[in-house]
Write a structure and sequence with these properties.
alpha/beta; four-stranded antiparallel β-sheet; 540 residues
Length: 540
């Protein structure tokens, strides 16, 4: 008999469903960094990937299981279709974890069964029973999902879930795969399951949903009121199409409104016992990390973690906040780990003081990464009088989330002005060690840089997004540049931070190109650098 939790379990699928966002692909080291941060955040389960999908996915899940799935850490989960080869791959990938889970699924809506699976209801029931039992042979922790449950016929859905639980599933996940349901419908769906699946008390009810109509968070909160005790969500709400339910919004809704939600857990309304195990002070840093790694910027008006979430411009609001913050703020910014502290460090400060401040901020860096970040800090200290914690976060994220440098930018120089034609010169070291120099004219300095880089690297691509945002206020602020490229229907992101946004733009572009080039090498493509560029030092 499964013990029902007295709180909400947070199942984070940023590394699986979140990574399916166009351009959000992460390498193994980036996934490890995210998994470590999710562990610090306090999520209960990390869905680390889809092991059968590719050797890279398998390696990432296995390494996360080894390095993050320790006894006191989160459960590490691998996704698998309801097939033996998928389930075996997931089982091998999560095996090193102290707590491993296999999450298997099959579609149950009539439209999916008819057009995608081409199987009858009887066949789907038989597959569910066989594959859940097969997964149970590898681990006691098996989760089952009826894909497109939101559009499945209720009576058949109840039947499938009963079979899955009888076969050994300890979690049954109800996905609104296409983001179609409204809150009242989703709440009714969960209540119907709780009332009509006879063995439902032997499994935890989980929910998964997409945000196509902007209702994912509201749907989940309604599901909690009707008995759901696991929420499958992502940081910043990233994911396919319009994304998933946002972890930070769900957690803070239940934190701020716990008096409202407590009675649904059989607690007194005034109970201060948290409804999740999330360390809320890690929310902001986790959001920043995901934004940096994926290149997906957080919109300024995004709830909880947006730049404007705690900003007040209206005079009436400012007056009220100055008198009492509770007049217009329902939560303290420090609750999510957001503060405006300035570090008492300067260009004469040593490594130990720098390391100590990073540790206070929750960063544990290797000696190599610390050295790189410290050099960037020293450089920044020569340019800025005051260095904020957000500056440090930008430095650390920029230095520790680098991709393999197949092409290395050795020099970038621009000339522009109101009566000049923007011109850029770049020197790039190619994968074979050769230094090539070239120059180009553009509509502006960044356009000129990108044209010059393209002349050297010569990998066809289309720039589909370019954005700049300031880390802090002031003319000397660090600028963060995020770009996205398209090549052969795939999207590659790049991110860089520098007080010089022209330099940051060049490095962000190189990072995206290196991701692109690296993926083509894995795929066996013959892309090679341009040979018409001029060797460095010979002039243009």
């Amino acid at each position: 008999m499964t013990t029902q939790p007295d709180r909400v379990l947070i199942f984070d699928t940023t590394l699986r469903d979140g990574e399916q966002s166009p351009g959000a692909t992460m390498n193994v080291e980036e996934k490890l960094a995210v998994a470590r941060q999710l562990a610090r955040l306090g999520v209960d389960i990390i869905e680390a990937g889809f092991p059968y999908a590719s050797p890279g996915d398998f390696e990432a899940v296995q390494r996360i299981a080894q390095e993050v799935g320790v006894a006191e850490g989160p459960t590490i989960c691998g996704l698998a279709r309801a097939t033996k080869q998928d389930i075996e791959a997931a089982a091998r990938a999560v095996e090193p974890a102290a707590k491993g889970r296999i999450h298997t699924f099959i579609a149950t809506s009539d439209i999916h069964m008819k057009y995608k699976l081409k199987k009858s209801r009887e066949q789907v029931l038989a597959i569910t029973d066989e594959m859940v039992r097969f997964a149970k042979g590898f681990t006691d922790d098996v989760e089952f999902s009826p894909e497109d449950a939101g559009r499945s016929e209720p009576e058949f859905l109840y039947q499938v879930l009963e079979v899955a639980i009888a076969a050994g599933a300890t979690t049954i996940n109800i996905p609104d795969t296409v983001g179609y349901l409204t809150p009242s419908e989703f709440g009714g769906l969960i209540k119907g399951i709780a009332d009509n699946v006879p063995n439902v008390d032997q499994a935890v009810i989980s929910v998964h949903g997409h945000n196509d109509l902007g209702l994912a968070v509201a749907n989940f909160l309604e599901a909690v009121k009707n008995g759901a005790r696991q929420l499958e969500c992502t940081i910043n709400g990233i994911g396919e199409r319009a994304g998933n339910a946002a972890l930070e919004e769900l957690v803070m809704a239940m934190h701020v409104r716990r008096q409202y939600y407590n009675p649904f857990f059989g607690r007194p309304a005034d109970s201060e016992v948290p409804l999740t195990h999330i360390n809320t002070t890690e929310i902001y840093k986790t959001s920043r990390l995901i934004s940096s790694v994926t290149g997906m910027l957080v919109q300024p008006n995004k709830a909880i973690v947006g730049a404007n979430a705690f900003a007040h411009e209206s005079g009436i609001h400012q007056d009220g906040v100055l008198k009492n913050r509770l007049t217009y703020e329902i939560m303290d910014a420090q609750t999510i780990g957001l503060n405006d502290n300035l570090i008492v460090l300067g260009k004469l400060s040593g490594r130990n003081a720098f390391r100590s401040r990073l540790q206070e901020l929750g960063y544990e860096l290797s000696d190599q990464d610390l050295n790189k970040a410290f050099l960037r800090f020293k450089d920044l200290a020569d340019k800025k009088k005051e260095i904020s914690d957000r500056d440090l976060e930008a430095i650390v994220n920029d230095e520790t989330q680098q991709v393999a440098e197949h092409f290395r930018l050795e020099l970038v120089q621009v000339s522009c002005g109101s009566n000049a034609r923007p011109t850029a010169t770049v020197t790039i070291r190619t994968p074979n060690g050769e230094e090539l120099m070239d120059a180009a004219i553009g509509t502006g300095p960044v356009d000129a840089i990108y044209k010059a880089i393209n002349r050297v690297v010569d990998i066809p691509n289309a720039l589909i997004e370019y954005s700049v945002q300031s880390v802090t206020a002031g003319i000397d602020a660090i600028g963060e540049v995020t770009i996205r490229l398209r090549h052969d229907q795939r999207i590659y992101s790049g991110h860089a931070a520098n007080t010089d946004i022209v330099v940051a733009s060049a490095h962000a572009y190189m990072q995206a190109l290196n991701r692109l080039y690296g993926s083509t090498q894995v795929a066996g493509s013959s892309l090679s650098p341009q040979r018409m560029a001029v060797p460095a030092g010979t002039g243009v």
